[in-house]
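Throughout this review, each integer encodes one residue's backbone shape. One record appears below.

===
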Amino acid sequence: MNATQADVVIVGSGIVGLGAAYAAVRRGHRVIVIDRTEGPVGATVRNFGHICIGAQIGQARQYGEVSRDIWLRLGHDAGFRVRESGTLIAARHDDEQALLAAAAREGGMRLLTADELREQAPVRHEGVIGGAIVDGDLQVNPREAPAAIIRHLAAAGVEFLFRTAVTSIAAGRVQTSRGAIDADRIVVAVNHDLDQLLPELAERAGVQRCALDMMRVAVDLPTPLAAPLLTGWSLVRYGRFAALPEADVLRARLHTERPDLAALDLNQMYTQLPDGSLIVGDTHAKAVQPAPFQPEAAFSALLEEARGLLAVDDIRVLERWQGVYASGPDEFLIETPADGVLVLAATTGIGMTCGLGLAETALFPHLQEAHQ
């Protein structure tokens, strides 16, 4: 049987794969996207929908800025909501406020009084002493946006082969359960499942999986949440804050006061979906293959922390799930294991923030070479 021909074949329909397809089809290439599922079911849909650009530094910040422009363009063209929300941060201790003040000197964020924060986030009066808002960040609905992007790309001529397994990849050819596809350029964007396709590369690069406990809850908030809401537990995770010396003081206190939450590797944050429900999370556990069993204690801790911060009387759990993303020693994986083969992954939990920019920036030189 003759092989199918394409200019660019992309393995994986998560946000990085969709970003690669978008970059290629805009430049006139014939693009095929292959995925073994019937649509995105991994990290791209199991997240907060928070495009958290202002909390990044270095390469992540660069990719995030590129992603921001692409998100806004795709939201308009593909017909899904992209909210220019910024990011709110609640400070409940002097060391958190000190860290925010230090980070604010860079610009792009503004310190808030406790009252100013409460105007935009329904937090309790007791305990919150101030906060900040980071400019430029975005919010999307992770259950809506990927499907809308796929429809838009399909209308632009991208061919999607869902429920199709890739069995091997070599320079110029992808073998699949539906036959071979020949291509000038191949992009592997399978995130945490890299070890299922290129195990030697995954092992050498130290890529494993990070499993998260997350939930969606129904709440009766006195005011809507104007933007994604972070806490001190978030500050010690994100590069813009974690790189500052003030973060060491905050981290030491949090781990001393709440070793139970530190053991869960907590990132206490919240986003509100259009239907009013909240996404609540999250915890982190890293392994090559994390256990699928989720302890109820983790969910109990998430609910307890939500009740302590938010001005709500009742929280009703609607859904629980295990998030998952690729984790590695570096923030990003960019490899060329064979001629014309490019492997891309965000190997931290910032794929929605950086994935579109990563694909655009990393793939563009390869697309130029294909024309030469």
Remarks:
- The CA atoms of residues 235 and 241 lie 5 Å apart.
